[in-house]
Specification:
The complex is a heterodimer. By secondary structure, chain A is mainly alpha-helical. Chain A is built from four helices and four strands, in the order βββαβααα. By secondary structure, chain B is mainly alpha-helical. Chain B has 16 helices and no strands. Classes of the chains: A mainly alpha, B mainly alpha. The complex binds fe (ii) ion (FE2) (2 copies).
């Protein structure tokens, strides 16, 4: 489980907790729902700020995903050492690392407390 | 052993290619004429386009796609024209002519065009370039030469794909070997025939040679960057990336922070979006 701000929500993620309205009385979206763009948009419109999602990827899967991205980029950029290409390469490497670490379970441990307040 | 294309062969290809270009639907022609005359109200143009239901639906779908990031749905052509301006609408009309029906063969090119269009708009907004809508259209059309080759010269396309696999090179290099010219040259032929505005031309013709863009280097630079960012974002194994010249970074005054900002904006729009729906 991980508590994420709604801006980070993507279709395909699964809700691990019910989503309540502002007052906390009305369930807007049930636990187990698979998010779609339309649902996310609706939650945005209703002012929801955070949601708790199921972590489908294991640490190992996450590692593999990052490793694959890194390998792809290294391969595609090999021999392309100009200033501009190097800058693009570094920016993408950083971007994928950050993106996958946000939802990685190792971060989730630190997020554990926050998840309850979500 | 490849024989070198003679200038005469290239001229012949140009002639045959321009002949094969799809006819421009009456309604589009009429709308163009009005747009070129200038000083025409959005509701008049809207009415003309509105006569063709399929066309209006296509334009509205494009306008409401993530390209432009409008927060609310745009329901009427008139509203779309007011928001986007006539040049952009003209570009969108051309894109419906170029891509026509998105078949299996050009599906990948369509998805890349959509990625590039969205990214060009994002770059323009991040860098505060005011022609964001025009750049979006340039992104949508930047590889139209490839679409034409695939649609109307499948035997040449098959050769190009073969060379590409054999040499492990970019489309552009393979096109040069097979045709003697590349899709950016073909873009130039089409832009000339269809009287594209000069700004749009620069992006279409020089997105792989930004150095040569003299009149509107910023346009060429944005498309070059949008193109490579779209490719890197969806990188596949064995893919050969085009080269982006250092000029692009200088012209747009790029730094790592700006690039990171652009990529994260791209991620929001491109991550799950399925271009088939457009
Ligand atoms: Fe290109
Ligand atoms: Fe491209």
């Amino acid at each position: 489980m991980a508590c994420i701000p709604l801006e980070k929500a993507k279709s395909g993620m699964k809700l691990a907790e019910d989503v309540y309205n502002h007052g906390g009385k009305v369930v807007l979206c049930k636990k187990g729902t698979l998010l779609t763009e339309a649902i996310i948009q609706r939650l945005v419109n209703m002012g929801v700020e955070k949601i708790v999602i199921e972590e489908s990827l294991s640490t190992q899967e996450m590692r593999q995903l990052i490793d694959e991205k890194m390998r792809l980029i290294e391969e595609a950029f090999s021999g392309k050492d100009s200033e501009c290409m190097q800058m693009l390469k570094e920016a993408f490497l950083d971007f994928w690392r950050n993106k996958f670490e946000i939802s990685s379970p190792s971060i989730e441990v630190q997020d554990g407390k926050e998840a309850e307040a979500c | 052993m490849e024989k070198k294309q003679r200038p005469a062969d290239i001229l012949l290809l140009k002639e045959r290619l321009l002949e094969k270009l799809p006819a421009i639907p009456k309604v589009v022609q009429e709308a163009w004429k009005l747009i070129e005359k200038g000083n025409v109200s959005p509701s008049v143009i809207g009415e003309v386009i509105g006569r063709d239901m399929t066309l209006s639906a296509k334009v509205l779908r494009l306008v409401n796609s993530p390209f432009y990031g409008f927060p609310n749905r745009i329901g009427s052509l008139k509203h779309a024209i007011v928001l986007l301006g006539l040049d952009t609408i003209k570009g969108l009309l051309i894109s419906t002519v170029v891509f026509g029906k998105v078949t299996q063969e050009i599906k990948e090119l369509w998805a890349h065009a959509c990625d590039c269009a969205t990214t060009a708009g994002i770059i323009a907004r991040v860098l505060n370039i005011k022609e964001a809508d025009e750049l979006t259209v340039s992104g949508l059309l930047h590889d139209m030469g490839k679409v034409v080759i695939k649609n109307y010269f499948p035997e040449l396309d098959a050769k190009i794909q073969k060379v590409k696999r054999r040499n492990n090179c970019t489309d552009r290099e393979a096109e040069k070997e097979v045709l003697g010219v590349s899709h950016d040259d073909i873009n130039g032929w089409m832009a000339e025939k269809w009287h594209f505005p000069a700004t749009l031309k620069e992006g279409l013709i020089y997105h792989h040679q930004v150095k040569k863009a003299i009149k509107y280097p910023i346009f060429a630079a944005v498309i070059s960057l949008a193109d490579i960012l779209s490719h890197i974002y969806r990188l596949k194994f064995g893919q050969c990336l085009p080269i982006v010249e250092d000029e692009v970074c200088h012209i747009l005054k790029l730094n790592p922070k700006i690039i990171t900002k652009i990529i994260s904006e791209m991620d929001k729009s491109l991550y799950t979006f399925d271009w088939d729906e457009i």
